[in-house]
Amino acid sequence: MEGLSERQYAARVGLSRGAIQKAKATGRLVLYGDGSIDAVASDALRAEATDPSKTRKAPQPKLKPVPEAAVSAVGETLREQGLAAPQIGSGTTFLQAKTANEVLKAQERRLRLQKLKCELIDRARALSLVFRLARQERDVWVNWPARAAALMAADLGVESAAMQKVLEKHVRAQLDDLAEVKPDLR
C-alpha cells in the first residue's frame, strides 16, 4: 500500500470516513493505483476546490470572562509568595492561576491546623478581652487620685482635697487621650 487508507486520511484531515468516501467517489481525492489516497496531492486538490466561506470553522472554546477581582486576587497571592504576578489587564496564565490556587489551599490547610492546635484565637473574643482589660485599667486609674492624694498631700504638706482635684484633672485628661486609641487586630 503506497498511500493512506480512508480511515487514516479522515483522521489526518479531521473529517468523517463517510465524507472521505464521498470525496473519493466524486473524484475530489488523488488516488494511487492500489486505491490508497495520496495525502499530499489530495490536500492540495481539496484546498483548490474548497470554498473557504463554506468550510466549517473549528468550534472555539467557550471561555467565561474572569472577574478582575479574581485576577487581582491571584496576583496578590502570587506576590505574597515572591512569584511573578500578571500585569493588570494582561490576563493570567493557567499556570499562574493553578499556582495561586495551590498556595491558597496550602494557606487554608495551615490555618485549619493552627486552629486545631489552638494556636489561633477568635477575633471577637480577643476584642472583648482587650475591651475588658482597658475598662479595668480605666477603673483603677479613676480611683487612684482618691487613694494617692492623701499620701501625697501629707508628703508635700498641702491640703488633701486640693491635691485630689489636681490629680483627678490630670488623670481624666490622660484617660481621655487613651479613649481615642483603638486596637488594630489584623
* Overall 3D shape: rod-shaped
Number of helix segments?
A: 7
- Catalogue the unreliable spans: none
Number of strands: 0
For the CA atoms, what is the radius of gyration? 41 Å
The span between the termini is 75 Å
Helicity level, as a percent range? 55-70%
Order of helices and strands: HHHHHHH
Mean pLDDT: 82
The major beta sheet can be summarized as: none
Strand content: under 5%
Q: What report would you give on this structure?
A:
With 186 residues, the protein is mostly helical. α1 packs across α2. The longest helix has 34 residues. It is rod-shaped and about 130 Å long. The chain starts with 5 loop residues before the first helix and ends in a 7-residue tail after the last helix. 9% of the residues are buried. The mean pLDDT is 82.
Observed structural traits:
single chain; rod-shaped; 7 helices; 186 residues; mainly alpha
Summarize the structure.
It contains seven helices and no strands. By secondary structure, the protein is mainly α. The model has no long low-confidence stretch (mean pLDDT 82).
Sequence-ordered SSE layout with sheet pairings:
Blueprint lengths: L5 H8 L3 H9 L13 H11 L18 H13 L13 H23 L6 H34 L3 H20 L7
Helix pairs in contact: 1-2, 4-5, 6-7
